[in-house]
């Protein structure tokens, strides 16, 4: 167990030393023993409304209270660890079906196939929601941790790119029009043809991964990021260099679920019906706020979605079940933690890749801006 969270400093150090020793060798998972209307976003871009432009000016940056970071602990630099499912879930359930059992809609009202026209090494995909307040969150992401992907006129010119994903079924014309406008301004909007509900998140990821496989066929790594998660892109790139890609071209990387065998919840928001997934546990999977799927893993998984039942719980489905189906290596790293004062220090010290923002949407907007300012000024914020 090479996890650092919620331990005392001493035991953290001991675990860290032990992990460093263990982690230098990578192990294979032992289970292997057992109608499109596309928008040309390069056409002239009408300016977004002025309320968008003034949105950031509303924040009182100058009066924000920044101070030097105080190192509470010396956080260990994250390393990549592969992990093994024990005991193995060795059942025929994880075999692909012989005929199609799932319908993955592959028509895109907003296609945005220009995104990967030029070489893309790392593509960030963010499942998003088509409403007014989420529009502000997208703008805040484009202007903070993701700003380096955008050049003049919001063109994405680096070899890292980002796209927000939506489903159109059930959207009214106004909401759809707003997405067309946003797409023509920022060029980073993809809209698929499905009902964009919480219960359809797994389908949404299947659509996203299928879009990537089709339109970004040579991408090296896809990073799925939730809207409320702030990413340290430099550290992410550094961690990607630690993956032994020659031995494990198809991999997923993220924060492993606390339990080696995560229980399946049958009631409430995260309920998964037995008819969908009959086993009592999932294969160990990555937490959903941010995880990486390598290009080769995308290309293995994407064509197989129709031949496997869609299971609710997008993170368990993609990083657990589909990885198990394809024998994809799962790597764990100190990837993300929740946003607390202590974790900001940790983030600032390059010890975690991402922070999950907490609280009301407005608080998250505020925190995203503060984290960004703090990243740029190399100072921590106090309030
Ligand atoms: C995964 O590994 C098992 C055991 O080696 C093998 O039987 C199975 O065919 C593999 N599955 C895939 C999709 O490669
Ligand atoms: C900034 O925060 C520190 C620590 O909480 C406090 O002592 C100081 O008075 C604050 N300064 C301003 C200008 O708010
Ligand atoms: C979308 O899903 C919700 C919840 O399942 C349902 O109430 C609604 O009718 C669906 N809308 C469409 C357009 O399929
Ligand atoms: C998921 O999307 C499909 C296609 O739009 C729709 O038929 C289905 O009702 C949706 N399911 C849920 C749970 O919203």
From TrEMBL:
PROSITE patterns associated with the record = PROKAR_LIPOPROTEIN
Q: Which Gene Ontology cellular component annotation is one that this UniProt entry carries?
A: Golgi membrane
The enzyme's first-digit EC class, named in words, is transferase
Q: Which InterPro entries match?
A: Glyco_trans_31
In its UniProt record, which GO terms are filed under biological process?
protein O-linked glycosylation
Q: Where are the transmembrane segments?
A: 9-28
Documented EC number(s): 2.4.1.-
Keywords annotated in UniProt: Glycosyltransferase, Golgi apparatus, Membrane, Signal-anchor, Transferase, Transmembrane, Transmembrane helix
Q: Which domain of life is it from?
A: Eukaryota
Localization, UniProt = Golgi apparatus membrane
- What are the GO MF terms of this UniProt record? hexosyltransferase activity
Q: Topologically, how does it sit relative to the membrane? A: Single-pass type II membrane protein
Similarity remark: Belongs to the glycosyltransferase 31 family.
Q: What is this protein called?
A: Hexosyltransferase
Write down the species.
Elysia chlorotica
